[in-house]
Every structure is written in C-alpha cells, then in structure tokens.
Write a structure and sequence with these properties.
The model is unreliable at 201-208 (pLDDT under 50). The protein is 34% helix and 18% strand. The two termini are 24 Å apart. It has 2 domains: 3-264, Acetylglutamate kinase-like (Carbamate kinase, 3-Layer(aba) Sandwich), CATH 3.40.1160.10; 272-366, Archaeosine Trna-guanine Transglycosylase, Chain: A, domain 4. It has 12 helices and 13 strands. The strands form 2 sheets. The protein has an 8-stranded mixed β-sheet with strand order 3-4-2-1-5-7-8-6, sandwiched between helices. Strands 10-9-11-12-13 form a 5-stranded mixed β-sheet. A hairpin with a 4-residue loop joins strand 11 (309-314) and strand 12 (319-324). Its main location: cytoplasm. Catalyzes the transfer of a phosphate group to glutamate to form L-glutamate 5-phosphate. Residues 7-232 form the Aspartate/glutamate/uridylate kinase domain. This is Glutamate 5-kinase.
Length: 367
C-alpha cells in the first residue's frame, strides 16, 4: 500500500469521533485527524471528508433523553452548524458543505451534478465536507449510514482510496471483545459471505453503522477500483502509520477490473423500486436479442413507473440484474395476469416487447 501514490482520498469520520459521549462536538480526537488531513494536502493529495455526527453534536441543545424523529432532525440541523465550525477551526482552510440524500444520488442528473461540483471544489483547493441531509430526509430517501454514503461519494468522484475511521482496529475474524484469540485481518482480497459473517454490530452507542455497513461500503468502493481501509480513528498511531506507508488496520484490495461508472452506479447506488420475476434465467441478456419479453413475466412486485430501476429475479429468488424498466408496474402486472386468463395469451406491449434495454442494465452476477 502506497498512500503517496493515491491522489484523491475520501476520509469517513464516525459520530463517536465527532461527539464522544454523544453530547456535543469535541476536538479530543479530531485534532489528530485534522493534522493528518493537512499532511495529506501538503503531499499534494486531494481530500474529501465524509463527516457524521450532526445529531450527536446537536443533542446538547435539546433537553431530552428520548428524542422523536422530528427532534432528531432538529438536532441534526443544529449540530451540523457546530460540526462545520469545529472543522473550520481545526483545518483552517476553505471548506464546503454538501448535504445529500439517497434520492440525490439515485437521480442520474443530480448524481452528475454532485460530481461536477466536487470536482470544481477540489480544483480550487476547497475541502468538500459531505454528510447525509438528516434534517429533510425520510426513511425512503435516506442512505441510513455514512459508511455507504462515503463509498457512493468515493465512486462518484473517482477516488483512489477510501479510509473509514472507526473505534476498532479493523476487521477481526471474530469479536475481539469476547474472544481473546481474535485476529485482525490486515488484507482482504475478496469480500465473500464468510467476510460478512465476521462483521458484528456497532461497538459505539453513538453511531448508526457497525462493521456490517463498513463491509458493505468496502464492497461498493473496491468494485469501482478504490482501495479501502478500515482503521482505528481514536489512535494517533493509525494516521502516523498511513503516512509512513504502513497498513494500520484492514486493507480491502481494489478490484483490478473495476465496473464501468454507469454499471457501478446502477448496481451499488440506485435503489430498485420494484421487482419482475421471470420464468427462466436463460431468457435474459443474450447478444443483440431483446433482453426480456412479455412472454417471460411470471410476477410483478411493487409499484413503479417507466424509467424506474427494477430488480429482475427468477422464480427461485436468484437476483439476475438491476435495470431501468421501459414500462410501468401497472402495465406489466396486466400482462402477467393475462397469462393466467382462460385464453392463455398475453397482450403485446406497445411499440415493442422489450421490457428493459442494454443501455440501462447491470448484471448482478458480475457484481
């Protein structure tokens, strides 16, 4: 691992580092991180910061131990200001605030706009600080954790490395809190079900993501060709080792054959709005032939419109692909129901029989 060769870094900071004790911002751990960021900048590296902690930072201004959803949004609105202020003080350089929802990332036009804005900020030596827009987001529109948000942002701006700072040294083969013989995995070349099985819950009561979400984030980023590190952000030595070219935690090796940006976006960022179950995987995605026809539909789940992203599965639950649909669930449902009618003949789709097209297709078997 040669950090010096990585021009563009995304650094994700968890809530426990921002607001230890869940009660307002603190410089206790952030001073070390700020120094690390300055060192990276002096090396000529670009840094994008994904900073959690707005709710934890704002909690001190609200007299409650059991906040409602609305109050958490108010905490986020208040704490976001405190969080930006402490970063401005510690970094002492131009900063930009970018608040995102999952809906922003799922919309292709907004996704490209986000990328263009961040590129312009970096070109002018401004550090973008990204966070989820907790004040306005809903369950349907939110990413839910900043680990995955960081991975999506890293892919959007073609980062070279994603560093996720947490409160453990990295990924262990078993829970180090309950097993004295737990071993830290320093290198992971491929994320498999066994790797996911090693991930436990959140160690800290402050954050929303545990090791599970960090593995999910790593899977997203390495698929885009981005090396990913999980390190202990509470230890000064973690940052010193990185600057010395030493791996202080768990290094997830990037895929040597990364997905194309469009396929990665479809696979790892866009959330499907519904599902189409087809009769046989053999019908899907052969050469220049039509992908899927009305004859292949067994069932349609969910409500979606033409242009939405859907999941294509087989009857046994195998996930084949994510793709933009050319037709609404209403029409596809009608076609599927016609198959069960007495005449046993489906009504043809208007214009042509293609449910999806190659231009908007991500085959999940290659994810």
């Amino acid at each position: 691992m040669h950090l010096i060769n990585n021009k563009r870094l995304v650094i994700k900071i968890g809530s426990a580092l921002i607001a230890p004790g869940n009660n307002g911002c603190s410089t206790k751990y952030l001073s070390n991180i700020a120094y690390f960021i300055k060192q990276c900048r002096e090396r000529g590296q670009q840094v994008i910061l994904v900073s959690s902690g707005s709710v934890a930072a704002g909690r001190q201004w609200f007299n409650t131990t059991n906040p409602s959803k609305a109050m958490k949004k108010a905490m986020a609105a208040t704490g976001q200001n405190d969080m930006m202020a402490i970063w401005a003080k510690l970094l002492d350089m131009p900063l930009a605030q970018i608040l995102l929802t999952h809906a922003d990332l799922c919309n292709r036009e907004r996704y490209v706009s986000i990328k263009e804005t961040i590129e312009e900020l970096l070109a002018h030596n401004v550090i973008p600080i990204i966070n989820e827009n907790d004040t306005v987001t809903s369950e349907e529109l939110k990413v839910g954790d900043n680990d995955n948000l960081a991975a999506m942002a890293a892919a959007a701006i073609d980062a070279d490395m994603l560093i996720m700072c947490t409160d453990v040294d990295g990924l262990y083969d078993k829970n180090p809190n309950t097993h004295s013989d737990a071993t830290l995995l320093q290198k992971v070349s491929k994320i498999t079900p066994s790797i996911y099985a090693m991930a436990g819950g959140a160690v800290s009561s402050t954050g929303t993501g545990g090791m599970q979400t960090k593995i999910e984030a790593a899977e997203k980023s390495i698929a885009h060709g981005i090396d990913t590190l999980i390190i202990n952000g509470f230890k000064v030595d973690s940052f010193d080792q990185i600057l010395a070219g030493i791996n202080p935690g768990t290094h997830f090796l990037s895929n040597p054959e990364p997905m194309s940006p469009a396929i990665h976006w479809m696979t790892h960022t866009v959330r499907e709005r519904g599902e189409v179950i087809i009769d046989d995987e053999e019908y899907a995605f052969n050469g220049d032939e039509e992908m899927l026809t009305s004859n292949n539909i067994l069932e349609v789940k969910g409500q979606f419109s033409a242009g939405d992203t859907i999941l294509v599965t087989t009857e046994d639950g195998t996930k084949i692909a994510k793709a933009k649909t050319n037709f609404s669930s209403c029409l596809l449902n009608y076609i599927a129901q016609e198959q069960d009618s007495e005449c046993n003949n489906k009504q043809p789709l208007p214009q042509n029989n293609s449910i999806i097209s190659k231009e908007h297709l991500a085959i999940l078997g290659n994810a």
